[in-house]
Each structure stands twice: as C-alpha cells, then as structure tokens.
Amino acid sequence: MADLRLNTLTSSIILALSSGFYPLADAKAQEKTASNEQLEIISISRKRPESLQEVPIAITALSEKVIENAGIERPGDAIGLIPNITMVDASNVGDTQVTIRGIVSTRDAESTFAYVVDGVLMTNPNGFNEELFDVAQIEVLKGPQGALYGRNAVAGAIIVTTKQPSDEFEGRVKIGLANNDTQKASGVISGALSDTVRGRLSASRNTTDGFYTNAFTGADDSVDYLEDSNIRGRLIWDASDILTLDFRASVSDVEGGAINYNAAFALPSFVDAFNQPAYFADVNEHDFIFAFNVPGINEQSTFETSLKADLDLDGFDVTAVLAYNDLEETLLSDGTSASFYGYELTAQCQTDRATLNNAPTAIGGAGRTDLFGEFFAPFGVFAPGVEFTGVYGPFTPTSCDGYQFQERSQSDFSGELRFTSDSPSDPLRWIAGLYFAEIERDVVVAYGADTGQGFLKQAYIPATGPNPTDLLFDDTFDTSVMSAFGQLEYDFNEQWELSVALRYDHESRDVSNNVPNVSASGLNINTIIDGVVGPINPAFTANPDGIPDRNSTFSHWQPKVTLAYAASDDWNWYASYGVGFRSGGFNSIGTEATLDFWFNATGDGSPGDAVNAQLLVSDEYDKEVTTNIELGFKSSLFDDLIKLNGAIFDTTVDDNQFFEFFAGPFGLIRAVTTIDELKIQGFEMDIKAQVTEDVSIFAGVGLLDSEIKENKNRPLSVGNTAPQSPDETYTLGVSWDYSLAEDLFMTSRIDWQYVGQTYFHTLQDEQTPTIWDFFGTLGGGVPAGPHSVDFSNATRDAYSTLNLRVSLDSENWTLALWSKNLTDENYLQEVIPTPEFGGSFLHPSAQRSYGVDFAYRF
C-alpha cells in the first residue's frame, strides 16, 4: 500500500486547518451554532433517517445549500466534488460511465451503482444523466451496497432526494443566460391543495449550441448542442393518521448531438512506412476537427411514475413502492468504415470525393485540409481515380463512411414491500423486504450506406431504401427480477453496534432476435465474399433457418456485515465486509461470429487468419461479483467545526464486465467482455471545516492502486491498472458567506478538482495485432505487416478544473454570476481504444462556460 500514502497536499490542508482551530473552537463555539446546523445532514442511506456522521458507510452528501452554491445542475457537476469517483459523458445524453472506487459502469449492460430517487430504484442506466433541479439532497455511497439496494450496486449507490411539497403556498422562477447561446429557465410552484393533500409542480427548459462547430456545414449548433425539457409533479396525501401516499410523475424530452468523436492511430509501423509521426501521436495533443455530413442526433423521451405508501403501525412501519418507467431513445450519426473502403465505389462516395478531399491541388486534389487536416497527417483522401488507397477516417463529410443508427428503448415495472422497525432508540432495529422488477429492453445497432438520399430512422432499411442496411443487431431483452432482503442492527452498548444484512437476488433473462433473414445491400464491398453478398447478420451463416432465442438465469447472495464503534462523542469507527452482484447477460447475437471472421484465425482463409488476435468474445457474458473489506472513521472535531471522514478498502472483482468497441470493415461493434479478476485497494478522506464565521472549506482526496490479476480475453493486460480508474483524485472548495446589509448577502464558492492520469482500456503499453495485418497482405496502399497497435500514447493526461459561483441573495431574489472550467482547461473527456482497428476514438471535454442566473421566490 505504499502507493496509497497520504500525499503532501492533503497533509498540509489538514495540519493547517487543525492548527488554526484550537483558539477558534473556544472563541466561536456558541457563535457558530447556526452555521454548524447547515453542516449536519440526515442520511437515509440505511433506509431510515440517521445522522450522516454516525452511519458506518463511506458517504459523501451534498445538501441543498451546497447544490445551490456549487451550481450543480447535472450529475457530472456533483461527481466533480467527490474523490474516488469520476464520470465520462461523451457519446450521447443517456450514455454515461461512472467510476466509483475503480469500478466503471458498462455501456450496453446494467449499471454498477444503484440510482434511487425519492426512495424509488431506477432500473434504466440511461436515465441517470438527467437534469438536477428542485433537489434537496444527494448522497453518494461508496463500496458494494447490494445487501440493501440489490442488483447492480457493486460499486455503490447514488440517492437523490427532491424537495417535498410545502404546507404553505410558495414558488420560484429562475432564468439564466450563458455563452454559446445557452438559455435556461425553470419554475416551481408548491403548496397545500387541501387539509391533507400537498402538491409540487416543477419544470425546466435548457438549450445550448455547444462549444464546437461542424467545419463542413459551418453550423455551430449541430455538434454538442443540447435541448432538455422536463416536467415533474408530486402529490403527498396524508390519507389518515397512519397512512401517507406519495405520488410522483415526470416527463422529459432531450435532443442533443451524438457520437462526436475524432480518430487517432496508434500504429508505430505506419510512422516508419509513411514517414508520418501523426500515426503514433499523443492523444492529448490531438487537434479536433468535427466535419460530418450525417448530423449526429440523439433523441430521448422518458416517462416515469411511482406511488409510495408509508403505513405507520404499532412497532413497525410498512413501505410499499410501485414504479413504472418508459424510455425511448434513438441515435443517428455518421459511420466509421471509410478507411476500409467498403463504400469506395458507390456513386455518392465517388461524387463526394471529387470535391471533398485533402489531396494537394498540385496533384489535382481539392486541398480541403479544413475537413481532414493536412494530407496524410494522418488522413489522406484522394479524388476519384485513385481507389482503395487513401486513409479516410471515421465521421467524415463524405458518404464513404456510411452511417449508423442506434435505438435503446426500455420499459419496466418494479415494486418493493419493506417492513422497518420504527424505534431508532431500541437496541435492536431491523428491516425486511421483497423486491421485483419486470424489464423489457430493445437494443438496435445498424450500419449501412449513405446514398445521399436522407435517412429513415428505423432498424432495417432494404436495398431499395434511401439508406440501405448492411449490418444489423436487433434484440429484445426480457428480465425478471425477484429479491428478498433484510438487515439487523444491534447495539451491544452505547459504543458498539453490529449490523448484519443479507439479500438474495434471482434474475431470469431472455433475449429474442429481431433481425430479418436477408442479405446485405451489396453496396458495401466488404460484405461480398467469393462473389456472394453475405447475410445482414453473420449469425445467420450458422443459423440459416433463423437465429434462436436465448435464456439464462443468474442469482447470488449478497451479505454485508458491519461493526461500528463510537470511541467518543466525536469519533466513530467502523469495519465492514460486503458483497455486490451484477447479473450476466447477452451481447447482440452475431457479435462473436463477426469478430471471429475478421479478427480470429480459423484456418478457412478469412481475414482473421492474417490478424490472429485470439479474442475470446462471446455472445454472452458472466455475472460480476464484488467483495469489499473496509475500515473507516467519521469524526466531528472542535465543537463540530470540523468534520473529518476517511476509509481504506480492499476490493476484489470477479468477472468484471468491461465494454469494448471493435472497429473494422464491418463498421463498429459494441460488446461486453469480462476481466476475470480485478484487485483494487484504496484510500479516501474528506473534510468539511468552518474556518471562520463566514468561510468554509471542503476538501477530499482519493487514492487507488488497482491491478488486473487475470484476463483470458486479453492475457497481455495482466498486471495493468483497472480501466477508467485514475490513481489520484483531489477536490478542494472554499465558500465565503458575507452579509452586505441586513437583508442582502453575498455567497462566493470556488471548487477545484484534480483527476490523475487515466487509462481507458485493459491494454495499455502492450502491442497486439490489427486488421491492417490483413490489408497488408492485399498490397495496395498498406505495406506488409506486422502492424501492431501500441496504446502507450493513448492515456489521458491528468487535468484539473476550476469552477466559480458568486451570488447576491435577498429575501425574495438571487442573482448569480458563474463560470465552469474557469481556466479553460483542455482535456479529453473520453478515449475509446479499439485495438484491432489500430487506434482510438477521442472526445473532448467542455470548454470554459460562464453566465448569469436570476431567481425570484414568492
């Protein structure tokens, strides 16, 4: 654990704060009572109200005041304040990957954390990245929480509590303007509808053009633009002295840019062959050009509703929850296959290349370096007449790269019945419950030809359509979940508490294939084998009569044992052992067959014979089990002026589900693989301190030491660190509250976040074969191999960001000036290494934003 020592920065913060608090504690103890109350947070992490400082779980909680002062509007804003947790938000609105303590959530699979809103467990991982407004509190629990929160809580839980309807009539309107033509508006109205019914209605509308421009069209609102609308309603009915009903409903519509990536090669052999360093450049120095002819459009519509009943009986409480969610999401964007010449000979590709190429004018080219960069640095596009020679790259302004269409729709119905002892002062407290969920998810990934005739947004387009489909994955996944859980908490005395929790989860999963048994359009020459156009899904080769349905069941016991020790009124220690479980599942059928044909040696003369990548990617994957041992402390020092919490942990993950992209002549395949064994050790600490009557400091440190112990799919990765898991994260915030007049206050808050160097793949410095080994056997523009990929230049550099918000607050209004990424730090949001392609897909982060908000309360 030598790598997990507390570094000098953190030590200096703690020493400086501690040394200044001895006189402050004596002089200001009574004076700060009101300020201390804002630091006291009631946690509901164990499904009952408790003081945050007494709950034996590593929790970071953000109060309503922090949410307001820090300008938290989306989940990524909150995550930026918490050590040992990071988030990638790149591909589209609903596609986020959250890493908690080295365990990253997985595209196209279940989440790694439980997401709970007002006591309702959200089952759709794509619903996480929603607008956060009218929120009272956010709690982030770290470490496996499966015993109480069930399936998928292998890394932790995120609990959001929205504001309840008020007894008195009240409301608020808020408007905001910012750079990039950003406009924000929201409103809330709340109050009693009768003696027993209270209601709350809130709405928001946010739009922005984004930071980046499409160099091909000149449009500044077609790359990372966003339009987000939400309406939420809540009714609480005190039906009797013992029964309360809580009804929630919300609708949201989001449209935004999608698949805004550039490509970068990682092929040292190409540097030598073409005398061009751009084929093995540092991804952190990439100069982004977005120039696509297919506008990236992500559309997402969500409807959520739930009914929660709380019944207060003699000796225990009963809580029943029923919830229904429906999410419809589609995505259309440019394709990736141009560099493999699949659509080289189509009429539209030939037409486009006549004017859209970066060949120098001296050799008859158009010299469009604004679209592709300098000639062969690394992309080179020739005019018609020079065929199968250029390096086009993905997401280009020509139709030569085709298009892609995706659909991820889910509807689910879930319920929970929970019994809870109602006396928190009793030495024995208990919880018992049952949970069920019925989930149906449709996943479509289609690739096809861009003929210049527009696009139908549907899974399959016949050869006679405007955008014929050449490769299609289309599956319906049905999941049934049944769970039983319970927890006992027993106080041996005033100092010692033992908590034992246990949950059993059982999942039944079925998948049916919806791909029609037809051939590809024939426009992509890579689908033509020995003069015959292949099927639209390679799985039909082995299943000519139709692709069969698949089913499997997954179950697991999830225990958690916690021993807590209150050493004094100021110090609480705890030790815990916990297990988390994430169900296995299915990749779209045809994944294995496609990858075997192109990348694995089969001895039948297929391209994979030349590549021989030795992949072990299956059409299904195993369940994931996380085991965690943790020792932590929570302290309240100097009359509660300082709250200092910390934990060390040791985590083992078996069959960690890891998402991979595979790019090739077929287009792009999304697949879930597994890392057989992953070991993670870590340390984290956070501090909240009231330095003076007006100044508060918030700081945190997170350190990780991770190692891949076994990985049969990528054996060369053994010994590497966990993907998307920076070894260091730091946070530091300062808030200053100042009274300008009797009814006018100024609040200033500045937040700094540091994220260490990050690998995004299990392969990190190793060299492995690529599809270019096959193209090297064909002659033409690609020299003979080997052309191994080397990802030593594909690591995201460490970065830091600074956010600032200054507000003036009166009794009825607030005026705030703010800036996010104040220093305009340029860093990568995501790097997606695609080993067999020989490079990575890159997405930049948001640049500096700034604006003004005005809120009026009545």
Short description:
This protein has 858 residues and is mostly beta strands. Helix content is 10%, strand content 48%.
Descriptive report:
With 858 residues, the chain is mainly β. The protein has a single domain (2-295, 305-362, 369-399, 414-857), classed as TonB-dependent receptor, beta-barrel domain (Maltoporin, Chain A). It is 10% helix and 48% strand. The protein contains 13 helices and 41 strands. It has a 22-stranded antiparallel β-barrel. A five-stranded mixed β-sheet has the order 3-9-10-7-8. A hairpin with a 2-residue loop joins strand 23 and strand 24 (532-533). The radius of gyration is 28 Å and the shape is globular. The two termini are 55 Å apart. Residues 1-38 have low confidence and may be disordered. It is a multi-pass membrane protein. Residues 52-157 form the TonB-dependent receptor plug domain.
List keywords for this structure.
858 residues; mainly beta; Maltoporin, Chain A; 22-stranded antiparallel barrel; five-stranded mixed sheet; 13 helices; 48% strand; tonb box; transmembrane
Structural class: mainly beta
The CATH architecture assignment turns out to be: Beta Barrel
Rounded Rg: 28 Å
- Tally of helical runs: 13
Tell me, rounded to a whole number, the average pLDDT.
91
CATH class: Mainly Beta
Task: Estimate the strand proportion.
Answer: over 45%
Largest sheet: 22 strands, antiparallel, barrel
| Helicity, as a percent range | under 10%
CATH topology (fold) name: Maltoporin, Chain A
Looking at CATH, the homologous superfamily is: TonB-dependent receptor, beta-barrel domain
Alpha-carbon distance between the two ends: 55 Å
Q: Based on CA inertia axes, which overall geometry fits? A: globular
Kindly give the count of domains. 1
Low-pLDDT sequence parts:
1-38
Q: What is the number of beta strands?
A: 41
GO cellular component, one term: cell outer membrane
Pfam family, one: Plug
Keywords: Cell outer membrane, Ion transport, Iron, Iron transport, Membrane, Receptor, TonB box, Transmembrane, Transmembrane beta strand, Transport
InterPro entries: Beta-barrel_TonB, Beta-barrel_TonB_sf, Plug_dom, TonB-dep_rcpt-like
